[in-house]
Write a structure and sequence with these properties.
The protein is α/β, with parallel strands linked by helices. Helices cover 18% and strands 24% of the residues. It starts with a helix and ends with a strand.
């Protein structure tokens, strides 16, 4: 009898122990779920503890320091004390791997730190200015997420180094996909200076709403082979396509356009440029050039240029072809007389024409050819 009681007591003890262990496991499981839920929620919760300063307008705030914030994932709040936070003046990324900017942020001046841990950044839609030193030390940066490419085109990058693409060479959409086929949204008015430097885009689509392409806009985009520029573009700024060394063919559909200097510097494989659309050629259509304009240094493969516009301002474009050692053919929509008259209008005569080119060139006009022998 005593043996049975001992056995029953032992079984009861084991049973109680199992209940206790089960409770512990359940408790641990709940803690895990709660912490996971908190972590998930934290992705959408703005960071806290920053130091702030009221801006001169008295209507907005600037972040001037980390304060107590050392979040691994830093999310910039939209407001402080009921007013928008529009600027980041000073902020370190020593411990921060992910930074999300609110749509209210308009300018960034901060140097993100010599030992920045930043790996990815998400840009808001309100940003207007980024200083050259912001990303200069962000050597670990891997991904740049962009909500709105139209807003991105309007950012004033103080230099190529102000654009984080000089480190990552890529842009990502908000779904996490690398943008390889760059489609500028319709309604975008300009492509700003340094907008897409060092990009790995395989193609670029520019809408009819864009009127200007800024300095260095596509510099070092080394996968581009063809670019089509629509007829609404009236200005292409200097060095816009510098060092796009796989670019082969450029079509500029505009019949009223101003070219700044050295647009195609070091585009070693550029072979063909077409300017103007014969269907949109009017008496007031004109191609104009910056002072002493050249297409660019080392355009050694450029052999064919087509001008589908009658009026060409040769006074400033007299140096246009001096770096094009392989140029052989120019196609001009007008007659031989019209070509020569436009040169004479700018006091450019046959002797000057001979000095325009580094090689023998045939100018194909509507009624025959003009041959310039070298």
């Amino acid at each position: 009898m005593k043996t049975i009681k001992k056995e029953l007591a032992l079984l009861f003890a084991i049973f109680c122990l199992c209940l206790m262990l089960g409770s512990c496991f359940n408790h641990d499981s709940n803690v895990g779920e709660d912490s996971s839920s908190v972590q998930q929620t934290s992705k959408f919760k703005p960071s806290e503890g920053f130091e702030y300063r009221l801006n001169d307008d008295g209507k907005s705030y600037a972040i001037i320091g980390n304060g107590t914030c050392d979040d691994k994932e830093m999310i910039i709040p939209e407001t402080y004390r009921g007013l928008p936070i529009t600027s980041i003046v000073d902020l370190d990324m020593w411990y921060t791997e992910s930074l999300v900017l609110s749509d209210n942020i308009e300018s960034i001046y901060a140097d993100f730190g010599w030992q920045s841990a930043l790996k990815n950044i998400t840009f808001g839609t309100g940003l207007k200015y980024i200083d050259s030193n912001v990303f200069i030390s962000c050597k670990s940066l891997e991904k740049v997420y962009v909500k709105d490419l139209g807003a991105w085109c309007n950012i004033e990058f103080d230099s190529e180094y102000a654009n984080p693409m000089h480190i990552t060479h890529h842009l990502y959409d908000t779904s996490g996909n690398i943008i390889t086929e760059l489609a500028i949204p319709n309604g975008t008015k300009q492509i700003g200076d340094n907008a897409f430097v060092y990009g790995t885009f395989e193609s670029v689509s520019i809408p009819n709403s864009v009127t200007s392409i800024g300095k260095y806009a596509f510099m070092n985009c080394k996968k581009l082979k063809y670019i089509f520029i629509p007829n609404c573009v009236t200005k292409i700024s200097e060095y816009a396509f510098q060092n796009c060394n796989n670019l082969e063919d450029v079509t500029i559909d505009s019949n009223n356009i101003f070219f700044e200097n050295h647009i195609f510097d070091y585009c070693y494989n550029l072979k063909k440029i077409t300017i103007g659309n014969p269907q949109n050629n009017f008496n007031d259509s004109i191609i104009e050039f910056d002072y002493n304009c050249q297409w660019g240094f080392d355009c050694d493969q450029l052999n064919t240029i087509t001008f589908n516009v009658f009026n060409i301002d040769w006074y400033q474009g007299i140096s246009l072809f001096r770096s094009c050692s392989q140029l052989t053919d120019i196609y001009y929509i007008g007659s031989k007389q019209e070509w020569l008259l436009r040169l004479e209008k700018e006091n450019i005569y046959q002797n000057d024409l001979d000095n325009l080119f580094r090689s023998s060139v045939t100018i194909h006009c509507s009624d025959g050819n003009i041959v310039v022998d070298k």
